[in-house]
Design brief:
Largest sheet: 7 strands, mixed
CATH architecture of the largest domain: Alpha-Beta Complex
Shape: globular
CATH topology of the largest domain: Quinone Oxidoreductase, Chain A, domain 1
Helix content: 25-40%
Strand content: 25-35%
CATH class of the largest domain: Alpha Beta
Low-confidence stretches: none
Number of helices: 10
Distance between the termini: 10 Å
Number of domains: 2
Number of strands: 15
Length: about 325
C-alpha cells in the first residue's frame, strides 16, 4: 500500500517520506479500513515535531489518528457483516504506530464508527480528535440542557464542534474570539480584545455553567470572573505549561477544573462521544469548514498548513 511515514522526528519536509509498505492485517477484534481521507490535527504535527522531547515511540510511525473510508477486512471476533460499510475512524495512531496517512489502517472495531447515509467521508474524517475532545468538554459533567456554556476559541476545531454539540444538547452558547475582527461566528460571540467579562455577564447574569477552554493560562482570571457557582472549566490546552489561576475566587465558587487529554479518555467516554457525534452529524447539527483536500504525497505541505493555524480542517485525499 502507499503510505506516508517518519522514522525520526523533526520538520515535516525533512522527516516525512511517502512510499510503499505492506498493508497490515487485522488482528482479533480489529477491522481494516480502506481510507478515503486522513484528517490532520495539531497533535499529529506536534508528535512529528517532538514538541515534548519524548523521541520516537516506534521505529516507524504512519501519522494521523482520524480518517474515514470503508471496512475491507476484519479479524477474528469482529463482525464480518461490517465489511463494505462506510466508517469514520478515531484513535488510529493513539499508542499505535500506524495511523491514517496510508491507503489502509487497522483499528479496534469500536474505533471504526458506522457513517450514516448522507454524511460525507470528509466530515467523518474531521470528527475524531476535535470531536471527541469537544464532546468530553461539554458533556463529561452531565447534560447541558438549560445551561449556559462558554466556549473560548469558538472558531477553532474543538471550539466550533463544542459550540455545536452544546446547542445540540439544549444549551445556550456564548463563544469568544481573540479579536473583534473575528466576530461573526454563529451564536452570541464576545471578542477578547474588548471587555469580555462585562460582555459575558451581560449575556449570562447568573454566570456560565460550563467553560470550554483552549488557553487556560490566558483565560483563568476571566473564567473565574464569569463562572456560576459549581461551574466546570474543561481545559484542553494552555499557552503557559505551568499556568497560575485565582485560587480563592475559584474555591469560593466551588469550581471544578477538568483537564482533557484526548488519547487517555476512558473507553466508555470515547464510545459515547462517537455515538453522539454520529447522531449529531446524521441530524445535520454539525458543520465543519474543510479545505480542499491535498494528495497524500503533499503531506508535508498539509502539516505546515496545520502548524500555521488554519481554521479549516486539513485532510489528505488517499488514492484508491
Amino acid at each position: 500500500m502507499k503510505a506516508a511515514w517518519y522514522e525520526r522526528r523533526g520538520p515535516a519536509a525533512q522527516v516525512l517520506t511517502v512510499g510503499e509498505m505492506e498493508a497490515a492485517e487485522p488482528g482479533p477484534g480489529e477491522v481494516r479500513v480502506r481510507l478515503a481521507f486522513s484528517g490532520i490535527n495539531p497533535g499529529d504535527t506536534k508528535k512529528r515535531g517532538d514538541w515534548l522531547g519524548g523521541g520516537m515511540p516506534f521505529p516507524r510511525v504512519i501519522p494521523h489518528s482520524d480518517g474515514a473510508g470503508v471496512i475491507d477486512a476484519v479479524g477474528d471476533g469482529a463482525d464480518r457483516a461490517r465489511i463494505g460499510r462506510r466508517v469514520w475512524v478515531y484513535g488510529a495512531q493513539s499508542y499505535r504506530p500506524f495511523g491514517t496517512a496510508a491507503q489502509s489502517t487497522v483499528v479496534p472495531s469500536a474505533q471504526a464508527v458506522d457513517l450514516p447515509d448522507g454524511v460525507s467521508h470528509g466530515l467523518g474524517a474531521s470528527l475524531g480528535i476535535p470531536g471527541i475532545t469537544a464532546h468530553r468538554a461539554v458533556f463529561a459533567d452531565g447534560p447541558v440542557a438549560g445551561r449556559t456554556v462558554l466556549v473560548h476559541g469558538v472558531l477553532g476545531a474543538v471550539g466550533s464542534i463544542a459550540a455545536q454539540l452544546a446547542r445540540w444538547g439544549g444549551a445556550t452558547v456564548i463563544g469568544t474570539v481573540r479579536r473583534s475582527a473575528d466576530l461573526g461566528a454563529a451564536g452570541a460571540t464576545v471578542a477578547l480584545d474588548a471587555e469580555p467579562a462585562d460582555a459575558i455577564r451581560a449575556l449570562a447574569p447568573g454566570g456560565v455553567h460550563r467553560i470550554v477552554d483552549v488557553a487556560f493560562s490566558d483565560n483563568a482570571d476571566l473564567d473565574a470572573a464569569v463562572a456560576a457557582p459549581d461551574a466546570v472549566i474543561a481545559a484542553y490546552a494552555t499557552r503557559d505549561a505551568r499556568p497560575t489561576f485565582p485560587f480563592w475566587p475559584m474555591l469560593f465558587a466551588n469550581l471544578t477544573i477538568r483537564l482533557l487529554g484526548s488519547d487517555d479518555f476512558p473507553l466508555e467516554a470515547r464510545r459515547q462521544a462517537a455515538e453522539d457525534l454520529t447522531a449529531a452529524a446524521r441530524e445535520g447539527a454539525l458543520s465543519i469548514p474543510i479545505a480542499d483536500p491535498l494528495p497524500l504525497d503533499r503531506i508535508a505541505e498539509a502539516h505546515d498548513r496545520v502548524d500555521a493555524g488554519t481554521r479549516q480542517r486539513i485532510l489528505l485525499a488517499i488514492p484508491s
